[in-house]
Write a structure and sequence with these properties.
Elements: E1 5-8, H1 11-21, H2 34-43, E2 45-46, E3 49-50, H3 62-70, E4 76-81, E5 84-96, H4 99-107, H5 115-121, E6 127-135, H6 138-154, E7 159-164, H7 171-182, E8 186-192, H8 202-216, E9 222-227, H9 238-248, E10 253-257, H10 261-268, H11 272-279, E11 285-289, E12 292-295, E13 300-303, E14 314-316, H12 319-327, H13 339-349, H14 357-364, H15 376-387
Length: 393
């Protein structure tokens, strides 16, 4: 009869454990013991490299707490996720943590109105466990293989990276991507895949991005990789973790917009240099790009640093506002979102929205006169074309 003890971990913890196991945020390659955790939380460094807070496993739950309290050094613990065995851990030590302080270390606050704090509070226990572990999580090994293969096939010598939510994908994102591929042999876009239901689903954002890449960019210049940005990629710590991840995936440069979550606090306090000083020990180049806007006088997408016209001439690419249009079923203006991307997103977000779609196609759209079977995406594209007809406007 087996006496093996079990700990129940959620998918976010599993993904994070796998990230560390794969060496993707090295030099952190294991769970930290109490002494290491205290040192990292105090110094913000681990083995001479910036790391914002201790890497711990402290799962919540009465059963988990009971198991953790009874563990002894050398015991092997089964790791369970959604009822299935996903790994094992050999216990080194267990130790108490202060959940409130842990939240402050991660997010800079323990205020439950902060969305990250709220989400982490419901999954953070009071006892941490350290020790060697193994977890089974094929996604990350597949990511590493795809990037390595792409670099080899394209003979890329200089690889850039971009962390993108694309929520929704807009013209400013396009500009950043075009600039990035003009300055490098290959661009890896890490498309954020959060463990929340906010915003557009990952598959919708992925397909919108691929629509742009496949139709409007040179071949073999861009690779999209799913990036499960777990709780550790949070707030002002985000840039440090993003830089480590990109470096360990084999990238030479990380490109960030000046609205990047990891830069915001530093801009607000006029301390831009301090975050880059802190990242100088990470062997990767970090480049910032200016904010892009549409200027109604220049009639083109411009940098706010190079356009001579005032803010009253600028249309900003405010993701939340564009998202509200899309979620309301409205087509964003083409200066904000490319029509092919809008059609792709709306068709996926509102499937079977229109009754008698073929009749609407035939009644409203110019065509050959034949009753052709048309899909929702084609309907949106033709509808956008009608909006852009200018003779009667």
């Amino acid at each position: 009869m087996s006496n093996t003890k079990s700990l129940y971990i959620d998918t976010e913890a599993l993904s994070t454990l796998a990230l560390v196991q794969a060496g993707l945020i090295a030099p952190v390659t294991k769970l930290m013991n109490e002494k290491e955790a205290k040192e990292v939380d105090e110094t913000r460094f681990y083995k001479g490299v910036p790391f914002p807070f201790a890497f711990l496993l402290a799962p919540i739950g009465k059963q988990n707490e009971k198991v953790l309290k009874g563990l002894k050094k050398g015991e092997i613990v089964t790791l369970l996720n959604e009822g299935k065995k996903v790994g094992e851990l050999t216990v080194d030590e267990t130790f108490a943590i202060d959940p409130k302080q842990r939240l402050v270390n991660i997010y800079g606050t323990s205020d439950v109105s902060h969305p990250g704090v709220k989400n982490t509070t419901i999954r953070l226990g009071k006892i941490a466990v350290s020790g060697e572990y193994f977890v089974n999580y094929p996604l990350l090994e597949d990511n590493k293989k795809r990037i390595k293969t792409m670099i080899k096939e394209t003979k890329a010598h200089f690889v850039s990276s971009l962390m993108l939510a694309g929520n929704p994908f807009n013209r400013a994102h396009e500009r950043m991507i075009r600039q990035a591929i003009s300055d490098s042999d290959l661009l890896i876009i890490f498309l954020r895949k959060p463990f929340t239901t906010e915003g557009l689903r990952y598959d919708i954002r992925y397909n919108a991005l691929i629509t742009f890449i496949d139709n409007f960019l040179p071949k073999n210049k861009v690779l999209v990789i799913p990036f499960e940005n777990t709780y550790i990629f949070a707030g002002y710590n985000e840039l440090i973790l993003d830089a480590l991840l990109a470096k360990n995936y084999g990238c030479d440069q990380l490109i960030v917009g000046k609205n990047h979550g990891g830069l915001g606090l530093y801009y607000d306090k006029n301390r831009l240099s301090s975050i880059f000083d802190h990242c100088k020990d990470i062997d990767i180049s970090i480049e910032t790009v200016d904010e892009y806007v549409y200027c109604d006088t220049c009639r083109i997408l411009v940098s706010t640093q190079t356009c001579p016209h005032g803010q009253h001439h600028h249309v900003r690419y405010h993701s939340e506002s564009i998202m509200k249009l899309i979620q309301s079923g409205l087509i964003p203006p083409s200066i904000l979102v490319r029509k092919e991307v809008s059609a792709n997103i709306l068709a996926a977000l509102f499937p079977e929205r229109f009754k008698n779609l073929q009749e609407m196609h035939h009644s409203l759209m110019p065509g050959s006169g034949l009753l052709e079977q048309q899909g929702e995406e084609e309907f949106y594209l033709k509808l956008i074309a009608l909006y852009q007809t200018s003779s009667l406007t």
